[in-house]
Amino acid sequence: MRSVAGFARGVDWLNEQVGQVVSWLTLATVLVCAVVVILRYVFSIGFIWMQELYVWTYAAVFLLGAGYTLRHQGHVRVDILTANAGPKTRAWIDLFGTLVFLLPWLAVIAWTAWPYVSASWAIAEASSQTDGMPALYLLKSLLLVFCALLGLQGLATIARSLLILAGYEAIDSAHGKEAE
Fold it and tell me: Which of 113, 84, 87 is nearest to 170 (CA)?
C-alpha cells in the first residue's frame, strides 16, 4: 500500500508544482489585458498578437490548473451528499464520481482532441490573424496536457479512496500528509 500512497503523493506534488507555476499566468493575463485596454482606449493602438496573448494565458491557466484545482477539491461538488458523511462514505462517493464521470469524460476529450491537435502540429498552425500569435499548435496541445494532469489527479483520488476503504489512514490531498 505504500506504493499506492506514494503514487498519490507524487501526483499531488506534480499538480502542486504545475499549479504554483501556472498561477503566475493569472497575473500575466490581467497585466496584458490591462495593457491592451490602455493602448486601445488611451493611445488608439492595437496589437492582435497581444489580444490573443491574454486569451492564451487564460486558457493555459484553466487547462493546466485543473489538476491543481481537483487536488485542492476546488471543483464543483454536491456537498449535500458528503456534508455529514464519514471518510469511508466520502471515499465511495469520490471513487464512484471519478470512475463514472471524470475519467470517461477525460477519455472522450482526449480521443476527440487528438486528431485536432495532431493536425495542428502537422501544419505548424499559427493564428488565422495576420499579426496573431504563432505556434497555435502549442496552445491546442494543452488540451491533451489537461487530460493528462486531471486524469492523473483522478487516479490519485482513486488511490486515496481505495486506501481509505481498505482501512489505511487517509492521505490528505490538500497537504500531502497522512490525516487522522
Answer: 87
Domain limits for position 119: 2-178
Q: What is the pLDDT of residues 149-176, one digit of tens each?
A: 999 999 999 999 999 999 986 665 544 4
Which residue from 59, 61, 81, 80 is spatially nearest to 69, judged by alpha carbons?
61
Amino acid occupying residue 147: C
Radius of gyration over every alpha carbon of the chain, rounded to an integer in angstroms: 20
- Residue 147 φ then ψ, to 5°: -60, -40
Taking the model in full, what pTM does it have?
A: 0.88
pLDDT tens-digit profile of 91-136?
999 999 999 999 999 999 999 999 999 999 999 999 999 999 999 9
Q: Name residues whose C-beta falls within 8 Å of residue 104's C-beta, 6 or more positions apart in sequence.
A: none
**What's the longest Cα–Cα distance across the chain?**
65
Q: Strand, coil or helix: what is 100? A: helix
User: Total domain count for the chain?
Assistant: 1
Question: Contact, 91 vs 161, CB < 8 A?
Answer: yes
Q: Which amino acid is at 56?
A: W
* Residue 132: closest CA among 35, 56, 29: 56
User: Average pLDDT in the 31-57 region?
Assistant: 96
User: For position 74, what pLDDT does the model report?
Assistant: 84
